[in-house]
## 1
Amino acid sequence: MAGRIMPKVSKRDQLIEGTKELLWEVGYEAMSPRDIQEKSAARPGSLYHHFSSKLAIAEAALDEAAAEDIARLEQLFLGNAPPLEMVRNYLLLKREAFRGCRFGRLAHEASIEHEELRRPVAAYFDAVRTHLARCLKQARADGTLRMGLDPENLAVSLIALIQGGYVIARSFKDEALFSQAIEGALALLAEASRSKRASNSSGGSAQRS
Amino acid sequence: MAGRIMPKVSKRDQLIEGTKELLWEVGYEAMSPRDIQEKSAARPGSLYHHFSSKLAIAEAALDEAAAEDIARLEQLFLGNAPPLEMVRNYLLLKREAFRGCRFGRLAHEASIEHEELRRPVAAYFDAVRTHLARCLKQARADGTLRMGLDPENLAVSLIALIQGGYVIARSFKDEALFSQAIEGALALLAEASRSKRASNSSGGSAQRS
DNA sequence: GTCTATAGGGGGATAGAC
DNA sequence: GTCTATCCCCCTATAGAC
């Protein structure tokens, strides 16, 4: 049993892992080095051997988290569904409204002014924005999204929608509000993508291919 | 100079005022009783004479803040502009993107689970939601907003949009993203509003902050 | 690399004089 | 009502043995 060739999880990895969890659960400021140590079954000596400070280990953990989620996004947006459908699917991803976004939740802490923390957070959002903007641009090009709608602006709106959804759900202690926010936006998007095939003569001629 | 009949600002009021500012600046958890005392030129004795705990004074301050802002909302939504214009105007209110919403910023703290804090936060958002939903409902009734768009859902979406706008602006350290999020939503709304009047004022929101 | 022991400072609150 | 003085605990490390 014990003789297996084990990857041998180092204390360093355990510490990083514990920190990732804590950053999501409680954020940066409310997370103490002691909390990390307990969650990782480690002692101060280990923590400060591998990392110079709480900020340093948080940076490492957050960099890892961002890399993970950015990679997952690549997968998500890889398919070849119609671009607007991709956007819809992204909005409808299963999310734990109360848990919040592990990046967005840090945005309101004063510590977000540490570039070490802000950089990975911004990197994650930038990846989302890029994917969404690309889909929306494509949708506009192929005629499923109306002109006059700026894909870049819209992408930011949708990211904000999700982040705000967490805020509202937590404030009302009601997960349903998260879904409501998403549904409202989906309905708007549907209106904005309603084909030009109807009597509305807003200039478009493109039909579904 | 000093002989004027002064309203005599009590230490209690100073403490509340200082707490309101701090809750906005740094949030609940990062605000220490000592911070409050310094900001209010008061001493522990005063604080704990008037309030039983940090939580108690935060509750009092937050209740006051919510009452203020709910009253301001009443004024805002009092005019008799077309309902959809009211909504647009609300979205275009001047906001300090980096400062964030003094209610929404608390939503991600673990302490939001204290009902004392959550109640005023939810009360504020509920007021916004009610006003927006009423406008949107009216707009749908008078034909300026398409059927098929649920006013309740949409109201939640718009609140989320704003709250998320703060998150994104802070994450990217870029106020322009707040405006971008708003613009994106305004464009969507414009598409969803039926241009029954010949004079097409939709989409021409003209000013950016 | 990981441990135990310890340190300086601030957090949240109380006691009691005035 | 407001003040000064003080308390205990936890936060963020640091030192040094193993």
## 2
Amino acid sequence: MVKPIAVRNLHGQVIQELGRLIISGELAPGEGLPREELLAERMNVSRTALREAMKVLSAKGLIESRQKTGTRVRETIHWHQLDADVLAWRCALMPTESFVEKLVEMREIIEPAAAAAAARRRTPEQLEKIKDAYEAMAAAEDLDAWAIADLAFHENVLHATNNELMTSLFSVIETALGTYFVLSASTAANFKYSLPHHQKVFDAIRRRQPEVARKSMLKMVTDSRTNIRRHGRKA
Amino acid sequence: MVKPIAVRNLHGQVIQELGRLIISGELAPGEGLPREELLAERMNVSRTALREAMKVLSAKGLIESRQKTGTRVRETIHWHQLDADVLAWRCALMPTESFVEKLVEMREIIEPAAAAAAARRRTPEQLEKIKDAYEAMAAAEDLDAWAIADLAFHENVLHATNNELMTSLFSVIETALGTYFVLSASTAANFKYSLPHHQKVFDAIRRRQPEVARKSMLKMVTDSRTNIRRHGRKA
DNA sequence: TAACGTAATTAGTATTACAAATAAGCACAT
DNA sequence: ATGTGCTTATTTGTAATACTAATTACGTTA
């Protein structure tokens, strides 16, 4: 759903390169970058392309430019942590256990809340889509089909909240987590183990029972977490 | 804490202008913009400045440029709803009741969760800061002092979660909500009405009681919401 | 010593030229 | 008539250059 980048443009590459340097800490906060002309030359791009990249990095809160002073890396406080790129860079460059925990924590906060909201506000059409996804999960015969249907289930639940802020947050977090492991897919052997959980969530949303939906979803995601902890990362 | 912009740069102005046009719907999704040369001329800026702005808007998921085809406004699905600018534009241009509800819903999801997390993981130093903020609230003699201390309280609680994703989400939502009303400040008469609530939250975090902290905070934010509903907007 | 002005530096803006991608139209062959 | 491949026109992508504006740093002067 969200494209994890495919940098064809030159400034896109520059964004990636500088972004990674900053997130990884090789360019520390407070540190000043070489002046544009020099940096452009050093990266073998024109000043034009470099500047287009720097404007984007500024918008992400990573750098700050001022005349005469030059360009500096900003303190981490100012970084837009929920920006898809920033998150992706952190996942790729600082794959620490604690960061995964933070992502999982966010997921465990929004998903139950989303299930409850969906139970309150879902339209019949949205319920139908959740149902479709659930049935696809039930019918899945291999891990791939399961994973696709599983993601669709959660996306449709989020969508049924009719709160695009929640949808957006979910997709960002989910994408970031996806770089670590295939979500909620346990072992290939019993990959359908969470189907009953999903059914409970679906039923609660169908019956418009917010608190039941919340608790069922909570159980599901905490189960999923312990499962992930048990099996560690994959692929 | 987060700067609501002060656009001195030319491309910054262009970003604002185009961003607003898109968010407001005057430039509808799917619609193509005039080609760069034309648009630049029409906006009385150079193509350089226009392009720098367009790169930023692309990064926000608002537009998409391809050679020969030109630049088009993307579907709202792709907009980065949690981007500070996008949120600010929506607040300014679509001040609908339903959007405020969505923001409030997000707040009511993260704050109790954050209180619980803070109760689990706060350091002594972080607890001290929360205490300071609480005492400043208790000592406040006017609405302004109260509002400042109140914000500091919530910020410090969020910070004590040691999850910068949560902190970032909070600050974005809070800034957006702040454009509508002075948060959780009721009438000037009894502006301290929520002090006992805050104390309960503080105590729970001090005693490391996550569930108590969650419930106390939940009560506080729901109270705050009904209060806001009762009094309507202000300022 | 302090105030003021001047020079030097760096990002900001503009202009121009050309490169690369690609949609659309045309010609050609089947 | 249809589809296939070439050509061309259009639009963004990249580069190079020149100049503007802001601001720091320094040196001069009162």
